[in-house]
Amino acid sequence: MLKWAKVSKVLRKSSVSLIAIMLILGTGQVGAGAQGVTKEFRMVTLGDSITVGYEPGMEDLKTNPYGYVERLEEQALLHGRTKVNNYGIAGLKTSGLNQFADAIRKGEKISSEAIQPELPDPRVEDITDQMKQIQTEVAAADVIAITIGGNDVSELLVTGNSLTNEQLSEKVQELLTRYSEQVTSSVNHLHSLNKDALFVIADQYQPLPKVGNEALYNKLMEATSLFTETVDRVATQLNEQGVKVKVAHVAKEFVGGEGTMTHMISDRDFHPNQYGYEAIAEVFSKVIWGNYVKLQVPDAEEPMNIIVSGKLLTTPNKPVLKKNQNYIAIQDIVDAISAKSVWNNNAKSTVITYGDQAVEIKMGAKTALVNGQTIQVTTPAFLQKVGKESKTYVPLALVAEGLGFDVQYQSKLKTVFINP
């Protein structure tokens, strides 16, 4: 395995070359959800360090980044149950994606070197140990999102900035021809496993601010435009062959904001910052669902957000966090999921039902009855003073999951999503 210091160095070296050369891959009220829908939406994401969610200073790619993929998962959770599998590989080129996609098609383990020589991502072997699983996930995916191409231009490190317009145009055409061939082949490999999936492929944003070098900036913007035309053409050709493909037009979102949406100014690194990753996620979300909902993170002193079937739960009874578990007033969760509750006077407990599912909770008890099975409870139900009243608070996840709902907590957003 490579040390992360080497990974960071390689990624930064690539970014410097791209600074001097050309484009880089780009890669309230909550909207209505999918009430009553139980089918799980499945997404697989493939690509390079943009897919990974890399930012300068990320010492370990095995930590949890917060890139466009994580934000896409949040958007998907607004529409229903969601499962996202991210197999982005830092340093990946289009040729490497093609090798990786072919290995997925075959369901065979492949070495890092066989995918692409000298890949800097230390997780590659861990990823390729899962090829059978990845094959299954691709075969079941509703959407396969791809961001790829930026690393292909690193060969221009020495000559890029000195090329004439004609020379640059010839080189860009060469690179775009290679891109078209490799991406088309990659998509066909994956499509052979899944004829119904929607492929969403990003074009590339240009990270160099105009103020840095206006002449070069203008050249790069021309190259960016050509790249977008190429991606659109690839999508059109694949659609004509029966493959469902859409393009996430990321590049235009970065125009004029290159210095504020990437790390170029502060770290001389082409990767998006948080503003950039959100912009990419918004483009993908609009392509997939037709809209993007900007989700707000509660202030530090405020309780978490609770979103049920795509709708933000608003209540004067603030949720409570105890022993890393979220508790909510019992009537709030009952009303939010359209369940029913009945007080059992003999057992001195509340029985909550949703369809044929039932959860019985007794005040102060360290166990609960979930569909007839006794479950240990870390913190029992308790009374919480709200104004002049005392409200019964119950463990949110226990009740929701016990009634058959899917519960996903997104720590970056400080938000829990509950879907039927």
Description:
It contains 15 helices and 22 strands. α3 crosses α13 (274-289) and α8 (165-191) runs parallel beside α9 (214-240). The protein has 420 residues and is α+β, with helices and mostly antiparallel strands. A five-stranded parallel beta sheet has the order 3-2-4-5-7, sandwiched between helices. The chain has a five-stranded antiparallel beta sheet with strand order 14-15-16-17-18, with helices on one face. The chain has helices spanning 4-19, 49-52, 68-77, 94-106, 112-115, 124-128, 131-140, 165-191, 214-240, 251-254, 258-261, 264-267, 274-289, 330-336, 396-402, and strands at residues 24-25, 41-47, 82-88, 143-147, 198-202, 204-205, 244-248, 262-263, 269-272, 305-308, 311-312, 320-322, 325-329, 340-344, 349-354, 357-362, 367-370, 373-376, 382-386, 389-395, 406-410, 415-419. Mean pLDDT is 88; it is low at 1-6 and 13-37. Helix content is 38%, strand content 24%. The longest helix has 27 residues, at 165-191.
Features of the shown structure:
alpha+beta, five-stranded antiparallel beta sheet, disordered N terminus, five-stranded parallel beta sheet, 15 helices, 420 residues, 24% strand, 38% helix, elongated
Estimate the mean pLDDT confidence: 88
Question: Would you report the number of β strands?
Answer: 22
Low-confidence stretches: 1-6, 13-37
Give the helix level as a range of percent. Answer: 25-40%
Overall structural class, as computed from helix and strand content, comes to alpha+beta
Read across the widest sheet, the strand sequence of neighbours is 3-2-4-5-7
Q: Which geometry do the CA atoms define?
A: elongated
Radius of gyration over C-alpha positions, nearest whole angstrom: 25 Å
Number of helices: 15
Report the span from N to C terminus: 42 Å
Strand content: 15-25%
Largest sheet: 5 strands, parallel
